[in-house]
Amino acid sequence: MSKRLNSMQILKVQLPISNPLTDLGFSRCILALLCVLLSGMPLAAGNGQIAGTVYSKTKAAPLPGTNILVKGTLLGAAADLGGEFYIPQVPPGEYTLQVLNIGYQSVELTVSVAADSLTQLVIELQPKAIRSPEIVVTGARRAMRKIDSPVTIATLSAEELSYRNAATVQDILPYESGVQLIGGQISMRGSSGYARGAGSRVIVLVDGFPAMSFDNGTIYWDAVPVQDIERIEILKGPGSALYGSNAMGGVVNIITRTIAPGVRTAVSLGGGFYSKPAEESQIWTKRPLLIEEWRVRHSRHFGALGVALALGRNQSAGYHANGWYRRWICSGELDYILQQNRLIRSRLYLILDDHGSFTEWKSPYQPFHTPLNTEDDHIVTHKLQWSTQYSYVVNPAQSRLLRLNIFETRFDNRLHNNRGYAHSRTLNPEFQINLRPDQNHYISSGVDLKFHQVAADLWGDHRGLEAAVYFQDEMPLASFLSFSFGARWDLNRVDRAQYRQQVNPKLGLTLDLSKTLVLRASHGWAYRAPAMAEMFIQTQQYIFQVKPNPELRPETNRASEIGLFRQGRWVNLDLALFSSAYHDLIEPRLDHADQKIQFRNLTEARIRGFEITADWAGQRTPLTGRVSYTYIDPRDLSADDVLAYRHRHTLVVSEQLLISRHVTLGLDYRYLSRMERVQLYPENHVTGADQRVPVHLVSGFCQYALDQTLRINLSVENLWQYYYVVVERNMGPLRLIKLRIDYVF
Amino acid sequence: MKHCLSILLITAAWLVSCEEGLDPVAGIEGVVRFPTDPLTGAVDFPDTLKGAVVVVAEFSPTYTAVDSFFAHIVATSAALDTTQADAPYYVQLAPGFYFVGVVGLTKPLAEILFMPLDSLAQHPEYFKPIGLYHLPESTLGISSIRVGEAEWLTAIDIDVDYGLELPF
Q1: CA nearest B86: which of B154, B5, B160, B10?
Q2: Which ipTM score applies to this complex?
């Protein structure tokens, strides 16, 4: 809980404030258009500034990444690698600062700001037992405390990515209860089944920008190198009121790091290998199943301009035939601070990828072999994401964002029976304004446009347009009660078809029952527009013919959640009850008139369940732990059956032990109950053939960390070599032993 | 107490997960060899057939007609890739004695695959037998196979003959 720190020092220093407009005059020329669009309110004269440094009380080391929020305003800052932060344009007055950092006791402190003066602080934070990120931005499109969100938001920190030696984001997400990944397709609390990647019901964002191809809704999990990730926020519930289509079942927001001050070079080297199956007949190659990765990133600042360039290479032999990949990842980053209260962030990621194609096993006898004739099947993909954000804190009560995202993907099938291709390009400008007109309103509002262009031989050439307006108001009705209301109006059109519109409202409530007990409730509507692939695919696989359905309607969801969070000194408890009613779910069906398969709006479904999470820490031992259990009841109301490809029970247990100041050991256990229903290859009741089993996975890791400069991670996934199928005729990964060294100089 | 619970859970996980998971399976696999055009090398698959699958029928010495063969089908393979000269297949089976054959489909496979095996037996007209597994030395043109507990038979290869006459 928040508390005052006696050891905190507050220094007030009267310093003259230079005029940044003259210092950075050339930038105004370059960005004249942006300034015309976004300025409009002159810098308030006579304002003060808050700056300072945040340290760990026990380690006496700076605490990068600490969030400092000026309570009751839209002002705030994040500490850089030296632990320093700076908040400009603070009107004179008395303020409460909230200082939050993962792994440390959050504090609130009162500071006075005088006109034309700099208030300088030195803040020391006390380590706390339970480590979890405190600040989230996904729930309301602005920074807020996680416990103030009316919907469940889980967070995965950069530390957790590092511990577990994750190669991509999809390696780490299953460690969050209620999140499952099947063949790269994400499902949150049972929202999605498995449709070979077509049409995701969870939106994946990178710094708020969508990272999904428009044509078939495929998520590109390798779009961001894990070393660049600050944290991952997972909103478990409908997010269409803020994020539109695809956010029907939830939102994954990958937050990247800012460029560190000074000159820095980071080198990352990793390698490892998969164990081979115990049965001789299942061994598909005599070669070792190696994985290798390296990355070099160099960053430096030229005055207000921070630049970073990186190049990396990942390759793996895979744990099954055609499971290999070779990937180049190039990235460029730019942070440009104009006048302290204006910031431009630009990120460019280019990924060149070539990977084997594995659709299903050769047989249950040789489940790691690929079928005859498919040995040379592979897919070449290119991905490019260039996102730029211009943020402008006009004053404590107003901030503006102008964002532009370009997302381009291309894949070329080089399969023995398919040489298809698809090229998709999206241009996504967005304008957002956050307002704090008085103490009773936090308003986030914006306009979001998307222009899509698709060229493909699988589903034809098309153009799409999406336009949306969103609005959300959070109203602290009392010191213990907060109410929020929001809605988003979406308009979309494909080619020259009629415009379709959709309105998705949501309501939220948080009630502080006591200082340590918070009740939350939310009710929201959400939708997903059909992907191009679902509307226009026209192909033949084997003798299955698939025909288009341009009349496909969006599928919708209405969801409710009630949650209770109890924050303790040693144990945090969270309970959530949730229910979702899905309408017009899009699924492939056989048209008996012409015997062709077509995507149609068919299924009515309902998913109910609950989730319990407990985080704890030993009172006398450096041991932290977490248990999370999710139960879902996924019903297909149309067929009066259970929904396919869902795990009814999910359990995640994690333990971490701090051996010394530098060494941490950890152990994870994940359990997924047996899938009750599948669609592609239903089980044969006559022969009893059924390869679905419950999933029990144990993984371990050991990390040696020397300050911020050196980290050595050893991890073992699937420690006990458990054999299981992820989906019909596809085995889960075998034991993976991996070592990675990260060095910064 | 909390840590004891975690340690117990992880220990239990270890007990159930160590080199465990899938049970050994029984079944057969092989390739179906389709005739090819001697000039182009392309697979010569007739337009009158909509597809092909491998079917496995329980062994019975009393088969007297095609329909009785199909009445005893216990499993089918996935659709064969009729564009390939050697189309791989597999069928998972319970231990027992079986006949194995290839049938061309006179109805679209998408329709047939949605029918349960029991009702398929009522429609022998949907199938045109085009191959039977037999040992090279077999004079009958059909051989039974025996699948044992957790036994997987490989190289159960079948040659397609569009003019096949069933030997019973």
Answers
A1: B160
A2: 0.79
Which residues of A are less than 8 Å from B82 in CB distance? 542-543
Contact A686 B74 (CB under 8 A): yes
Q: Tell me how long chain A is.
A: 745
Residues of B in contact with A544 (CB under 8 A): 79, 109-110
Q: Residue A509, Cα to own-chain centre: how many angstroms? A: 24
Compute the average pLDDT of residues B18-42.
Answer: 83
Question: What is the 3-state secondary structure of A675-687?
Answer: CCCCCCCCCECCC
Contact present, B51 and B69 (Cβ < 8 Å): no
Report the Cα A707 to chain-centroid distance in Å.
Answer: 27
In whole angstroms, what separates CA A591 from the centre of its chain?
38
pLDDT in tens, A254-289: 988 888 878 999 999 999 999 999 888 899 999 999
H or E element that contains A179: strand A179-182
Tell me how far apart the alpha carbons of residues A565 and A417 are, in angstroms, rounded to a whole number: 53
Closest residue in B to A544 (Cα–Cα): B110
Q: Read off the tokens for A548.
A: 């288009």
For the cut 70, the answer to whether the pLDDT of residue A27 exceeds it is: no
Q: Which helix (H) or strand (E) holds A468?
A: strand A462-478
Helices (runs of H) and strands (runs of E) counted in chain A: 7, 44
Q: Does B48 touch chain A (CB under 8 A)?
A: no
Residues of A within 8 A of B147 (CB-CB) are: none
Which pair of tokens denotes residue A264? 């820095």
Give the chain B residue nearest A670 (alpha carbons).
B13
CA-closest candidate to residue A146, choices A76, A62, A67, A211: A67
Q: What length does chain B have?
A: 168
Place of tokens 């960053």: A299
pLDDT tens by residue, B101-118: 998 888 776 666 666 666
List, for residues A191-208, the tens digit of each pLDDT value: 887 766 667 889 999 988
